[in-house]
């Protein structure tokens, strides 16, 4: 249980030190005085999310400390051992500091821990119930978890076993989907490779073919110009014995007669003689070219079509003909290496089916236990509701069995809490029929039942009595007091009937000191409690009559406590 709480520089709290004892403690005061701030500070000690906005204006950091006394059978000691945190007795000291830079320092028994560790350990120290718990109860997705809290250890062990198997099942399903996707991609790749290979192979490409074809195409496309040029060239060189060849021959003969007289003449003779034979050879070559020159219009069309095929392939697989040929070879090699192993997929499907059957079998065990637990819960909740003046209300747990392809990590069940508030009405989802006051009582009914089964020693009710009054308020006070017989309860309340049932009462006030607002908390003695309860009854002005009513209410509460004890 929480024995001591120290708060420094938290919101409008400057410095606060509170000592708590067993039983029921009421925190009362006007709205905005800082009651919920105290609970928020306590929440930081058990791992709630922090914020620099919590730091009091003008201060560099906040600090919250708590001293807890834990019963010897608490599972928290195993958690402490797991994290290597020393514990010499049943006391646990928790410290948390937050500075303006957002640095978060958490300590348990003077050992530094991170916030995840703090949260893991904190869940065995304090459980806070307020608006979040109402939202939890209104969310049908949480109903199965709430029901499971009431189950025994055997069920919880089976649930852990089921969840491990379910995780394994999901991993295999993910693997199967990946294999099937890969297989589909491989088949698509094979089809693409076959198409590419067929397209390239059918072209029967040869290296350098494009260059040869381009040359031949140029010859055929320029046939007239080539023929005309060759004809004119040959005519000039050889025709009518007065061509260039004959002229060079005459020059050569003339130089032959004088070459022996001068070295220069010899050189001229050698040059002209070489040119004569070269031009003679060139004339013969031009003559042969003319003889071989032929124009085939069909051949030109064939070449143009062939070059179009090559160009299209180069655009797809090139950009050069050699690269197209290499692409085709690579496609052949890749296709040869591809292998689809159907046996792997078949084996995986078989093991998945085995796991599904095991899940269905274990899920049935869990479901049977849940039905038993639900029957017991319905009886207990309905009994609690009667005691909370909801005698015509009925609570039930509705089950829906999921099909084998819709299993969840919780099993084969889908669960919804239903309520009917009046005789003759049908059961409807809790979220649709419960008013604020009714929902508060339903939550309290749950907490009353589960209190003895919880692994925490401190429960906090943050304005759980909102929306109720009169005799219902007294019933809620009685119910919270009963819960406090099993665990320590801290209760923020605006109801005098609830406050009167507490074993101790703190009054929270807001005051201004040196132009700064701060929260002040006082532990009330018997006379102070009369004044505080009188204010809760009167609302504004306290009279002698309200004091008499307050005293009477406190005396009646003492009698009610004795009856409940």
Automatic annotation (TrEMBL):
Top-level taxonomic group: Bacteria
Record-linked InterPro entries: AAA+_ATPase, DNA_recomb/repair_RecN, P-loop_NTPase, Rad50/SbcC_AAA
Gene3D superfamilies documented for this protein: P-loop containing nucleotide triphosphate hydrolases
Tagged with keyword Nucleotide-binding: yes
Keyword terms, alphabetized: ATP-binding, DNA damage, DNA repair, Nucleotide-binding
SMART domains: AAA
Pfam families, A to Z: AAA_23
UniProt domain AAA+ ATPase: residue ranges: 21-512
SUPFAM superfamilies noted in UniProt: P-loop containing nucleoside triphosphate hydrolases (SSF52540)
Function: May be involved in recombinational repair of damaged DNA.
UniProt similarity note: Belongs to the RecN family.
Name this protein carries in UniProt: DNA repair protein RecN
Species assigned in the record: Companilactobacillus keshanensis
